[in-house]
User: Fold these one by one.
Assistant:
Number 1:
Amino acid sequence: MHKYWGKKPFNEISKFIERYTSENEVVLDSFCGSGVTLIEALRANRKCIGVDLNPIAMLISKVSMTAVDVSLVKNTFTEIQHKLKSTINSLYETKINGENTLVTHTIWQNDQPVEVWYATSASKKKIREGLPIDITMSRSPSLKAKWYPDTPMFENSRINITKDERVSDLFTPRALVGLSYLLYEIKTIEDEKIRNIFLLTLSGTLSQASNLVFVIRERKKNGISQSKAEVGSWVIGYWIPREHFEINVWNCFENRYKRVLKGIGEINEIFGDKDDAYIAKHARLINGTATALPIDEDSVDYVFIDPPHANRILYLEQSLMWNAWLQLDKDINWDSEIIVSEAKERKNKNAENYTALLSRAFSEIKRVLKPNKVFSMAFNCLDDNTWIETLRLFTKYGFVLCNIEPLVYSATSVIQDNRKNALKTDFVLSFINTEREDLKEIVFNNDKDLLEERIVTILKDHPEHEVYNVMNALFEETMPSGYIFKPSYIVKKCAELM
Ligand SMILES: C[S@@+](CC[C@H](N)C(=O)[O-])C[C@H]1O[C@@H](n2cnc3c(N)ncnc32)[C@H](O)[C@@H]1O
């Protein structure tokens, strides 16, 4: 229904919930993101509490756990279609050789329209060269935009945000008109559940309606690019390619709606037998910070978290396009985000701040989790210090390791770290909440000969292993003995030995 980075495989999470809790017990995820843990907890008849700093994550979670009358959704879409389809399409209509045409896609190259795909009454897809009229239609649309966000973004070259760039700069003036009309209409929907669904539909439309959609050019075998273009899709970052698509806003919205409708079917299958009163009683969503939980002490039976991994995904910065359009950005608590960011205006978001806030989040978990209950954390990181610092937090708060196992993704996914040697599985580290104060800190073992010996043994049994499998095996083996080998050493040694 909606993209969110870091979504976890649901079937894997339910395994942990069922292992560590019984029916009606309370599961907490204080970094709940799009709510996978919560949905799995409810599905297994547990109670759940989800906390996240990111407002769009809250909306995704909320919609994902609410069954809804599909006919109401369909009727609302028909109404929106009736009111806006022809208005929005009028921004893309022009006469070519006396024939009425509707532009579906414009390919911009260095700010010039170079290729236009359009439909006529006789054909769904025709292609022509860009014309001066395409510039006029896109830059000086015939309708005035209603409200749209011109929120400033944090300059950050890592996610391609330049100085003084604003959310509105990601769109053409024509796209801003279409999207602003949709937002205006959606906000008039009275029924909150239905309104939320369409807000999410609009938010999910934004990337495909923006200038972030790159052009995929087929390549001939000899490397010379062919003229045939295909539509790419936004993955991450705010990079506006020199050659990008501008897609008809109505089509983007309608396509997204079809996907949302499919998602609603799935939600209804899961939650059809649980009415709103049941969900209200069993699920609590808190748009707040994991570092200060409004939750009673010793009231939670199991914690499963998947916190941000240092600087890998800048959740709030990446979500600003969504939050700004839905006007959810006003009260964002940027300071509490547990993140390492290179943004110039977020200089305090460094490794120290990350560890300090994560430590506070751990102390909150310690406070709310009942004694002798389990705390699991998904973890995927290659940085030596992040590993050891995180492991030390567990020790600091008396959490004793009871299980370590990989979290398997069913398919390769953009949310995973696909860098060379990246850990292709997350680990789930599970710990028992004890009052022990004598726990020894986990330390690095720098014995390179021992490391080599271990890797050789692992590879002897599993010659097909990749670096990440070796790392999995090593962590599983060594952590219970109170040490780990540095991930950077493991990667280096593997490179020598494999
Ligand atoms: C790896 S994602 C979680 C994804 C989630 N497991 C899912 O399935 O969608 C980490 C989340 O931590 C949130 N976050 C960062 N700092 C936070 C804080 N101080 N309190 C609560 N949530 C925070 C981010 O907004 C992000 O949604």
Note: Residues 10-55+274-314+333-441 form a domain with the Rossmann fold fold (CATH 3.40.50.150).
Number 2:
Amino acid sequence: MTILVTGSNGQLGNELRLLAPAYPGYRFIFTDVAELDITSEPDVEMLVKAENPDFIINCAAYTAVDKAEQEPNLAFLINATAVGNLARVAVRHNAMLIHISTDYVFDGTGCKPYMEDDPTNPISLYAKSKHAGEQQLQSYGSNALIVRTSWLYSEFGNNFVKTMMKYGKERGHLNVVFDQTGTPTYARDLAKTIMHIIQNKPVSKGVEVFHYSNEGVTSWYDFAKTIMEFSGIPCSISPIETRDYPLPATRPFFSVFNKSKIKQHFQIEIPYWRDSLKECIQRLEQVN
Ligand SMILES: NC(=O)c1ccc[n+]([C@@H]2O[C@H](COP(=O)([O-])OP(=O)(O)OC[C@H]3O[C@@H](n4cnc5c(N)ncnc54)[C@H](OP(=O)(O)O)[C@@H]3O)[C@@H](O)[C@H]2O)c1
């Protein structure tokens, strides 16, 4: 079994890279833009034809949520057009495409955890580009999975956990929004879940959507407080409203997933967000 991973220098890609040795039955091909630019369909075609992967995990994305407001063309090229490229090539070569999407496809005006088939309504350019990526996959893909995730963090790259730890050490006091609720997701847990899905040899007749985050619900304020608690950083946090911290891209206020579908379909248990956060911080402290 061969697994092609795109965008593997990012958070999720790096977590898959770390896990790979635990799956000796699989041949992994890790690529990022230097080895495989997913915006080039001929390049995708050439690599897939040469390596003949059984699975393609698309971790490549344009994830600069605020910058996307100024760079919509680039965001759409990477998050939408390129997903169409991958979908068509996967169909031609009989590979299963596992594509990662986001809670931002919803507008966050709901108050009940979002189901996979709830109506979407993306409210920022990044969100619209990711939503368009899902539509590309629905149009061109077959035997494909879309895994939507939320509030992703890891030991790698830039994310909320690492930013809070850095600013917490530098400043001793931070203001963090309390009126956006959702669920953090440790990229390592998501990577393990993707490997579990692959091991269970999924067959999808079309494009199947699943929601995955860690368990529980929190706000960015509570998340930040817990980061300081677990990392022992003596930084106080004050709750503020979203309107007091204006950013170029609008965020959904409520982005909690209902995860019953993925849990039942693949018989998985999902770790509680606080337990996963503790594990990630322990790993970060081992490295530093
Ligand atoms: N981060 C979150 O909070 C979050 C939340 C929900 C869903 N997601 C989704 O989860 C997935 C993984 O996110 P992540 O945080 O792991 O992303 P990430 O850390 O930003 O990694 C994305 C990787 O893709 C690479 N890339 C960009 N353009 C490419 C191209 N044309 N061809 C190949 N590779 C390219 C990036 O390279 P450069 O860094 O050089 O651009 C980067 O290494 C994404 O689909 C994202 O939309 C993320």
Note: DSSP finds nine helices and 13 strands in the chain.
